[in-house]
Write a structure and sequence with these properties.
Strands 1, 2, 3, 4, 10 and 11 form a 6-stranded mixed β-sheet that branches. About 40% of the residues lie in helices and about 25% in strands. The protein is an alpha+beta fold. Among the domains are: about 190 residues, ATPase, nucleotide binding domain (Nucleotidyltransferase, domain 5, 2-Layer Sandwich), CATH 3.30.420.40; about 100 residues, no CATH class. It is globular.
Length: about 425
């Protein structure tokens, strides 16, 4: 039985494999061991995934781009369908097509079938909804079986990251694992000891798990709503006193998993009616163009890229010429903090709950292990580090630690 570890992420996906030299990540797209969790359905031809999917969309090819698919697990959206050309596809089937391609690429590298898998999962797929959380895990498990896995199990993503970190340590320590991904932020407090790696049961080493459904896509959404959407009429008044543009349109346009809702024709017509009723019709005209030309995913990509540039360089200019010649908006690091600072505080707030659940004070934590793309945001990182100020900060593989840890767990559970 050939086993693997599958980290299906909101933003990126990895596949962990085992070999004679230990765990490694499969090359899923060229030489890259990460695959953006995106799929593009051209009007004709074979679906594309990952960077190729986004390149086709950005390049103007006609079709439907879908990203952040993981975020529909545990929600009512998983039962809905979305138009793809002249077809309608269910979200469960869309996720299945994406993960089947990931599995096939891993099998091409191993030159054999992958029959067993340990699937990564967040501590909470859905906040405050035990039934929704259970449904999400069951749905993901069902999809894994449908694409050919005959044995499967789950592991919390931060626990998987701790298994990757454990390979680096010399002795015993208490580690807080912070996995801040695209859709969720997850924390585990784990007793790390290299000598424990081969134990069949590590339950006593896992002291606490906590999580919240906030991740990088939420930072993108808040930044978009605050900086970009007002240029498209968000918050602007209608001519009729006391009424404003419907906020739901802008929230959908700023949310990866909801953008496709706008592309049904009826929404475009209703926006044109709102344009005539708007006190600032020139703004609503930009919204109409974004929807009619299906620019929503492109805008979301641009906002994400702008967020990253601000995190790295301190400021950027977001070019919006696709909506109107010469249109742009500047974004500073202060803007990023102003519009997403509360998200960072909410993420860090879960650490206190995790420490309480473990029965520990902050000073008991020896190491803080950071993984996940959103740990690159300075204010997120600072908020987390402030919760355990005495801990040694360890940089994990931003996108690969979870997948590597899942491969380690797969070898333990299924023998390789």
């Amino acid at each position: 039985m050939t086993a693997c570890g599958l980290d299906f992420g909101t933003s990126n996906t990895t596949l962990g494999l085992n070999g004679p030299n230990g765990p490694r990540l499969a090359r899923l797209e060229g030489t890259a061991d990460t695959l953006p969790s995106a799929i593009f359905f051209p009007w004709t031809g074979t679906p594309l995934v990952g960077r190729a999917a986004m390149a086709a969309y950005v390049g103007g090819e006609q079709g439907r781009l879908m990203r952040a698919l993981k975020s529909v697990l545990g929600t009512s959206l998983i039962e809905e369908t979305t138009p793809v050309g002249r077809r309608r596809l269910g979200f469960k089937g869309v996720i299945g097509e994406f993960l089947a391609e990931v599995k096939a690429r891993g099998e091409a590298e191993t030159e054999g079938a992958l029959s067993a898998v340990v699937l990564g999962r967040p501590v909470h797929f859905v906040d405050g909804d035990a039934d929704g959380d259970k449904r999400a895990e069951e749905t993901l498990g069902s999809i894994a079986r449908d694409i050919g896995f005959t044995a499967l199990s789950f592991q919390f993503e931060p626990i998987a990251a701790s298994l990757d970190y454990e390979r680096q340590v010399a002795g015993e320590e208490l580690a807080l694992i912070a996995d801040i991904g695209g859709g969720t932020s997850d924390f585990s407090i784990v007793r790390i000891d290299r000598g424990h790696q081969n134990r069949a049961d590590r339950a006593s080493d896992i002291l606490a798990n906590e999580g919240v459904r906030i991740g990088g896509t939420d930072f993108d959404r808040h930044l978009s709503l605050a900086v970009v959407m007002p240029l498209l009429g968000h918050g602007s008044p209608l001519k009729r006193k006391g009424l404003a543009m419907p906020a739901a349109l802008y929230h959908d346009l700023a949310t990866w998993s909801a953008i496709n809702r706008l592309y049904d024709g009826r929404t475009a017509r209703s926006i044109r009616e709102l344009e005539r009723a708007a006190a600032r019709p020139e703004l609503v005209s930009r919204l109409a163009r974004a929807v009619e030309e299906e620019r929503g995913h492109g805008l979301a990509l641009d906002v994400e890229a702008a967020k990253i540039r601000v995190a790295e360089d301190g400021a950027t200019v977001l070019d919006l010429a696709v909506l109107e010649a010469g249109l742009s908006v500047g974004i500073s690091h202060d803007d990023l903090i102003a519009h997403t600072g509360l998200l960072a505080e909410r993420i860090a707030g879960r650490i206190a709950s995790c420490l309480t659940a473990a029965g520990l004070k902050a000073e008991a934590i020896d190491a803080l292990f950071l993984t996940g793309g959103s740990t690159r945001l300075a204010h997120v990182r600072a908020a987390i580090c402030a919760c355990v100020p005495q801990a040694r900060v360890i940089e994990g593989d931003t996108f690969g630690s979870v997948g590597t840890g899942l491969a380690i767990e797969a070898a333990r559970r299924y023998g390789g």
